[in-house]
Amino acid sequence: MGASLTLHVRSNSDAIAPANEAAETWLATQKISPEATYFAALTIEELVTNCIKYGYDDSMEHTIDVELLVADHTLTITVVDDGRAFDPLAVPRPDMAGAVEDRPIGGLGIHMLRELADKMSYERRGNTNRVTLTKRVA
Amino acid sequence: MEQPSIVELPGRIDNLTSAGLETSIGRELDATPPALVLDFGHVTFVSSMGLRMLLMVAKRCRKQQTPLALHSVSKPVVDVFRVSGVTEFFPIHPTRETALAAVV
C-alpha cells in the first residue's frame, strides 16, 4: 500500500507555485529524502512550464494532472496533459561540453529530469501525453 | 579597500524569482566589486531557468574578471549542478569564511 496525491494544475503559470506548495506540504508528511523532494518540485516546475509554454494550439485553459505516489520506497510522478503530442525522451541531449558562453539554452530542464530520475517513460494515450518518472526515496 | 559583494539568495531560484535576481545581482556587478560571493544557505530549489540565470552571472563575472564563489550549497542543489555539467563554473566552498578566503 502506498500514499498518493493528485493535483489538477491549471495551464497558467500562476498555478505552478501553489501546486508546488501543495506537493511540498504533502511530501513533508511522507518519509522521503531531500533529493526526492527536490526531484518532485523540479518535475512539476519543468514539465508544467513546458506544457504551458509549448503544449497547446489554442488559448483555452487546460488542466494538467500531476499524481504523486509513494510506495515501496519509490516516488512515482505521473504528469498527464491534453496538449499536442510531445515525447520529452525524444529531445536530443544538450551538448554539455565547452565554455559557459556556449551552453545551450533549450532542453536543460528535461535533461536535468532525465539525469536525476531512476526511470522516465512516455506514452501517448488517446489525446493525452503521460510522462512517468520514478525515484528511490531513501 | 573595497569589499567583496555578498548576495544572500532566497529559498527558490525558479521561474518566478530568476529575473528579479538577475537584475539585483547585475546591479552588484555594475559596481565592479573585487569579488562576488553567493550565499546558498537558504536555497532549497534551483530550476533550469534558475540555473540559466546563474550561468549568465558566471559568464558576466568571467567577462569583467570578477572572481565568483558560492557557499553553503545543499546536496540536492550540488547534484543538479553536477548532472547539468556546470560545476566547473561555480566554485563551491563550505562556509562564507572559506569562500571569502578563496576570492580575496
Task: Please provide a written account of the structure.
The complex is a heterodimer of chains A (138) and B (104). By secondary structure, chain A is α+β, with helices and mostly antiparallel strands. Chain A has 3 helices and 5 strands. In chain A, helix 2 runs antiparallel to helix 3. In chain B, the strands form 2 sheets. Chain B has a 4-stranded parallel sheet, with helices on both faces. In chain B, helix 1 (18-30) runs parallel beside helix 2 (48-63). In chain B, helix 3 (75-83) links the parallel strand 5 and strand 6. By secondary structure, chain B is α/β, with parallel strands linked by helices. Helices cover 44% and strands 17% of the residues of chain B. The chains are: A alpha+beta (138), B alpha/beta (104). Chain A binds chain B through residues 13, 16-17, 34-35, 37-38, 41-42, 45-46, 49, 96-97, 100-101, 103, 105, 108-109, 111-112, 115-116, and chain B through 14-16, 44-45, 47-49, 51-52, 55, 58-59, 62, 74-77, 79-80, 83-86, 89.
Short description:
With 138 residues, chain A is of the alpha+beta class. Chain A contains three helices and five strands, in the order E-H-H-E-E-H-E-E.
What are the salient characteristics of this protein?
heterodimer, A: 138 residues, alpha+beta, five-stranded antiparallel beta sheet, 3 helices, 5 strands, 31% helix, globular, B: 104 residues, alpha/beta, four-stranded parallel beta sheet, two-stranded parallel ribbon, 4 helices, 6 strands, 17% strand
| Beta-strand content of chain B | 15-25%
Main beta-sheet strand count, sense and barrel state of chain B: 4 strands, parallel
Order of helices and strands of chain A: EHHEEHEE
Q: Identify the most extensive interface between protein chains.
A: A-B, 24 and 25 residues
The SSE string of chain B, one letter per element, is EEHEEHEHEH
Radius of gyration based on Cα positions of chain B: 13 Å
Assembly classification: heterodimer
Cα-to-Cα separation, first versus last residue of chain A: 17 Å
Mean of the pLDDT scores of chain A?
92
The parts of chain B where pLDDT drops under 50 for at least 5 residues are none
Shape designation of chain A: globular
Helicity of chain B, as a percent range: 40-55%
**SSE class of chain A:** alpha+beta
Question: How many distinct beta strands of chain B?
Answer: 6
Q: Identify low-pLDDT runs of chain A.
A: none
| % residues in beta strands of chain A | 25-35%
Gyration radius of chain A, rounded: 15 Å
